[in-house]
Write a structure and sequence with these properties.
Chain B: GO terms for molecular function: beta-N-acetylhexosaminidase activity. Chain B: It is found in: Lysosome. Chain B: This is Beta-hexosaminidase. The complex is a heterodimer. Chain A is an alpha/beta fold. Helix content of chain A is 35%, strand content 19%. Chain A has 18 helices and 17 strands. In chain A, strands 8-9-10-13-14-15-16-17 form an 8-stranded parallel beta barrel, surrounded by 5 helices. In chain A, helix 4 runs parallel beside helix 6 and helix 8 crosses helix 11. The longest helix of chain A has 17 residues. Chain A is elongated and about 85 Å long. By secondary structure, chain B is an alpha/beta fold. Chain B contains 20 helices and 17 strands. In chain B, the strands form 3 sheets. In chain B, strands 10-9-8-17-16-15-14-13 form an 8-stranded parallel β-sheet. Classes of the chains: A alpha/beta, B alpha/beta. Chains A and B meet through helix 1, helix 4 and helix 16 of A and helix 1, helix 5 and helix 18 of B.
């Protein structure tokens, strides 16, 4: 993914230089005007919203979030109980805990939000998956509001929406309008990729961003956990991988309990954790702890001392991968593993005499993509045998590797025309597809770049309805070359929020003025909840970021 | 476009190479690690272990500054935990004062500070000497400076010489430094109008500035979007013009806290009250100040720049500046004067009448000149020197040499051509154009701010000497407390070295890369949220979010 990323960044650089003159220009780009949205601060916008002008009060002393009597979920569902407490605290930041004593509430107040899980299987103790039902219905009324969802996953989304409906009226009183909402996501896979190899991200940073993801109704954390620069994943089976391959064997690793904590934290917020173990390229750090895994590169007739991609001609490679992926498949509960497969450089393979010989034996001629295919197919077989499905970067599809029908192809390359053509080709072949090209948020530029992010649509390509249905969603990617804990959060938010709305809301939700108004308020809400989400433009939040 | 792209990628490759070099040497003691690079530094591989329990700061016996000197006393207190970064965390004594007084044992390392002129209660000014000499030998470091400001720079350098090995043991190498700044004015602009910056964000930036030897905080305190300065003479300005009258303002106490925090770090606070443009927020609390724009023969309800035709405008500015001049001790005030839009003036019949009366014809630059000249003269009567943005120089050749003194160059294009023109007129120059850091992308662009050569224009020695320095600008359209620090640091550090160090010893990006990478980890260790230059890690990563 490297070269393309760099190139795009350079293009942006040129654009920036060209606009340097227009500096103190205070006019909002593209004629955005500042008017309040009729939908308040809702983000992403629900599918159906009916908001009345009738206003109810909420009091921290009397308001409660409770299980509805009819609900199939109860006190034993800690996922929901935790969520009730979390959202109570978001709504009443100053109140420490939920009041038990019910005080008399004024007539025009909401005193209760009843959460009603309708399905017999609440999925409370399960993990979210790509077919999880995230739909919900919310009815805000006085004195009782009702949130109805088939499973806990929908309830989590509805609680977030409810919290976004509450606003501070005059004199600081919490208020909410009578509202009816019926909501469901447009796409099932709404992800954020974080890269913990190019820079190590402390656990705290990952958790904080999972929290922010939940506020934006993202449901997949794509954990690009290892890559060339470092191998922070502490493997029980092969501990030397991180011992030798991490930036530091103790301070810059994710232990099994760290990983477990992240997965559980994500689960409680309805977020899947999809790990990526990218091979055969992007594996320099693997080679440090696993001798003979990588291909020795040759300079003329002798080894040069440097190493290339995973060596695809050795049985030991596949024995290692079998054991390794067996572990990964038990550590990560999600049904999917991302297998990477991008940007394989053939130079080292070409230089190696053993590989040349193997190519000859196989009758591959000089077509090294055939060798790559051979490797990938064996890896796919290995992973299939662990009962996991897989996602792979688009090159694997481009190179014609045979894959199982339920493989998801992750599109990341090219300009708009190119990625749309690719989406077309992938879906024409009957594969499911995931889009990231327009959402490489590590690329930055001057101005309101959230607008371009917002306008991109994953179903915007030539294809039949059946093809469009194969689009499972998209992912915002924050690659780590220039990003670590110091700048990750403000670079991700609220720019990723633009992706979040594109993936959740109806495809016709595209009004930039309305979006600006809601997004500016949404970013202030994130700031108030403790996430340093950067500003969209000049202006202020009632509660500025205090975490300096 | 093609040329730019290719030159960028060359630079990028270089960075990758030096990155590899850096990894190879990572665990070796970092020698010559001072950023910005001192003018003269020689160090040997002889190293002395340091222990927080066997370390003291002392005034040299012949020093004019003695115990009780606020600037130096507080610097001792500040630099102790900056030198021994693990000490307080490890549960050492919370109060250093006790063991400052402990009897000295064998093996104590003493930093002896000798300051010739004890201006301990004063403020750094444009002529303050910041030079110092530092000599680190066995058991002692001797720091000599003409002023307390020079001593501060020396203490910073000393703190950067100290490093820890893999076991946490502190060391300092035998070193000789003879140092002084290349430019007198090394500024950093923060914009507190487009977004309000809470006080801790400003104070933290001042801390980071001192680690980089910046010496001027240019406070672009008000502008169109908001007026957070709480004026005691005109409280309406902030109560009506701030984003919020009580949470988004700088009270007099806040302002004096900023000034005092800056003073203790040898940093001047240069306030900017930009007029006649960029004043929309002023109008809210001061009716009649701004020009009423007309649509045909009736007021449109919108307002333009300050109304230059009304004497009340000058009376107001005079009273406001009188306050500003007494609140801010610096001998300079920045008057702005940039980007004045004449459309509104042209629409207003009163202004047109005034133009006629003054014989300006239809040349509105003459009106602008008239306004600026009044403001500049008014500033003079307050015994302050004015700084203006280059627009004032560009538009008003007449004004040029009689009224103007310092011009800040900010526009893009051939900025050195402008520097040449301004210095040719005998005026002093501050260069800001190449250092607009609010512009973020691409991210691997620190070298762009490093490879700036402020004196690379054709001109006499006299002209070159009129370039008094440069300034990093962080405009606030897209910046607030959430993203300020990582956007500033360590990119501003690149400019800091350009402004402090000798160009000859600091021209190579490849040489600077590992040093700056190291320095950014040091900033991180000190709690400054400085972003990474490239792939890699710091021993202690940033622990916030």
């Amino acid at each position: 993914m490297y070269t393309a990323r760099l190139f795009a960044a350079l293009l942006l650089a040129v654009v920036c230089l060209a606009t340097q003159e227009e500096y103190d220009n205070d006019i909002l780009e593209e004629g955005i005007t500042l008017t309040d949205s009729q939908y308040g601060s809702l983000w992403p916008l629900p599918q159906k919203v009916q908001m009345s002008t009738v206003v109810f009060k909420l009091s921290g002393a009397s308001f409660q979030i409770v299980d509805a009597k009819e609900s199939s979920s109860g006190a034993s569902c800690s996922l929901l109980q935790n969520a009730y407490r979390r959202y109570f605290e978001y709504i009443f930041p100053s109140a420490r805990k939920q009041g038990h004593v019910k005080k008399k509430t004024p007539a025009s107040a909401v005193s209760e939000l009843q959460v009603w899980i309708t399905s017999a299987d609440t999925e409370c103790d399960g993990f979210p998956n790509v077919t999880s039902d995230e739909s919900y219905q919310l009815s805000v009324d006085s004195p009782v509001s009702v949130l109805k969802a088939s499973t806990v996953w929908g309830a989590l989304r509805g609680l977030e929406t409810f919290s976004q409906l509450v606003y501070e009226g005059e004199y600081g009183a919490k208020s909410i309008n009578r509202t009816e909402i019926s909501d469901f996501p447009r796409f099932a896979h709404r992800g954020v990729l974080l890269d913990t190899s190019r820079h190590f991200l402390p656990i705290k940073v990952i958790l904080a961003n999972l929290e922010a993801m939940a506020w934006n109704k993202f449901n997949v954390f794509h954990w690009h956990i290892v890559d060339d620069p470092s191998f922070p994943y502490l493997s029980r089976t092969f501990p030397q991988l991180s011992q030798q391959g991490a930036f530091h064997p103790y301070t810059h690793v994710y232990t099994p309990s760290d990983v477990k904590m992240i997965i559980e934290f994500a689960r409680l917020r309805g977020i899947r954790v999809v790990p990526e173990f990218d091979t055969p390229g992007h594996t320099q750090s693997w080679g440090k702890g696993q001798k003979d895994l990588l291909t020795p590169c040759y300079s003329g007739a002798s080894p040069s001392g440097s190493f290339g991609p995973v060596n695809p001609i050795l049985n030991t490679t596949y024995e290692f991968m079998s054991m390794f992926f067996k572990e990964v498949s038990t550590v990560f509960p999600d049904a999917y593993i991302h297998l990477g497969g991008d940007e394989v450089d053939f130079n080292c393979w070409k230089s190696n005499p053993d590989i040349q010989k193997f190519m000859e034996q196989q009758g591959f001629g000089t077509d090294y993509s055939k060798l790559e295919s051979l490797y990938i197919q064996r890896i796919l077989d290995i992973v299939s045998s662990t009962n996991k499905h897989y996602l792979i970067w688009q090159e694997v599809f481009d190179n014609g590797v045979k894959m199982k029908a339920d493989t998801v192809i992750h599109v990341w390359k090219g300009n708009q025309q190119q990625y749309q053509d690719e989406m077309s080709r992938v879906t024409a072949s009957g594969y499911q597809v995931l889009l990231s090209t327009p959402w490489y948020l590590n690329r930055i530029s001057y101005g309101q770049d959230w607008q371009a992010t917002y306008k991109a649509d994953p179903q915007d390509f030539n294809g039949t309805d059946a093809q469009k249905k194969l689009v499972v969603g998209g992912e915002a990617c924050l690659w780590g070359e220039y990003v670590d804990a110091t700048n990750l959060t403000p670079r991700l938010w609220p720019r990723a929020s633009a992706v979040a709305e594109r993936l959740w809301s109806d495809k016709d939700v595209r009004d930039l003025n309305d979006a600006y108004s809601r997004l500016a308020q949404h970013r202030c809400r994130m700031v108030q909840r403790g996430i340093p989400a950067e500003p969209l433009f000049s202006g202020y939040c009632a509660y500025e970021y205090k975490g300096v | 476009m093609e040329v730019k792209t290719s030159s960028n990628s060359v630079r990028f490759d270089k960075q990758r190479c030096s990155f590899i070099v850096l990894i190879m040497f990572f665990s070796l003691p970092a020698v010559n690690a001072v950023w910005p690079m001192p003018q003269l530094i020689s160090s040997s591989t002889d190293r002395y272990p340091l222990s927080p329990r066997q370390f003291i700061f002392q005034y040299a016996s012949g020093s004019s500054a003695k115990s009780g000197c606020s600037v130096i006393d507080s610097a001792f207190k500040r630099y102790f935990p900056l030198i021994f970064v693990d000490y307080l965390k490890a549960g050492g004594p919370r109060q250093h004062d006790n063991w400052f007084r402990l009897p000295l044992n064998e093996g104590v390392f003493t930093v002896l500070v000798d300051v010739r002129k004890a201006d301990c209660e004063g403020y750094p000014d444009p002529d303050s000497s910041e030079s110092y000499k530092l000599s680190v030998s066995s058991g002692q470091a001797s720091l000599r400076a003409k002023t307390v400001w020079g001593a501060l720079r020396g203490l910073e350098s000393f703190s950067q010489l100290v490093y820890q090995d893999d076991f946490g043991q502190y060391f300092v190498n035998k070193t000789e430094i003879d140092d002084f700044p290349r430019f007198k004015f090394r500024g950093l602009l923060l914009d507190t109008s487009r977004h309000y910056l809470p006080l801790p964000a400003i104070l933290k930036t001042l801390d980071a500035m001192s680690y980089n030897k910046f010496n001027v905080f240019h406070w672009h305190i008000v502008d169109d979007p908001s007026f957070p300065y709480q004026s005691s003479t005109f409280p309406g300005l902030s109560s009506k013009g701030a984003f919020h009258p009580s949470t988004h303002v700088y009270s007099q106490t806040d302002v004096s806290r900023v000034i005092s925090h800056a003073r203790l770090r040898g940093i001047r606070v240069l306030p900017e009250f930009d007029s006649p443009g960029h004043t929309q927020s002023w109008g809210k609390g001061q009716p009649g100040l701004l020009t009423s724009c007309y649509k045909g023969s009736v007021p449109s309800g919108t307002f333009g720049p300050v109304n230059p035709a009304m004497s009340s405008s000058y009376q107001f500015i005079s009273r406001l500046f009188k306050e500003v001049a007494s609140v801010f001790p610096d001998p300079y005030i920045h008057l702005g004067g940039d980007e004045v839009d004449f459309t509104c003036w042209k629409s207003n019949p009163e202004v047109r009448g005034f133009m006629q009366k003054m014989g300006f014809g239809t040349d509105y630059t003459k009106l602008e000149s008239y306004y600026m000249e009044n403001i500049i003269n008014l500033t003079k009567t307050l015994n302050k020197t004015s700084i203006v943005w280059q627009d004032v120089f560009d538009n008003h050749e007449k004004l040029c040499c009689s009224s103007l003194s310092v011009v800040e160059v900010w526009k893009g294009g051939c900025y050195l051509c402008e520097v040449r023109r301004v210095t040719k007129s005998g005026l002093r120059v501050i260069l800001a154009s190449p250092w607009y850091l609010d512009q973020p992308g691409p991210t691997h662009d620190w070298a762009r701010y490093y490879t700036i050569w402020p004196l690379a224009f054709k001109g006499s020695e006299q002209q070159k000497s009129l370039v008094i320095g440069g300034e990093v600008c962080m405009w606030g359209e897209y910046v607030d407390a959430t993203n300020l620090s990582p956007r500033l640091w360590p990119r501003a550090s690149a400019a800091a070295e350009r402004l402090w160090s000798d160009e000859k010893t600091t021209s190579s990006v490849t040489d600077a890369f590992p040093r700056l990478t190291d320095f950014r980890c040091r900033l991180l260790r000190r709690g400054i949220q400085a972003e990474p230059l490239f792939v890699g890690h710091c021993r202690h990563e940033y622990e916030g979010i």
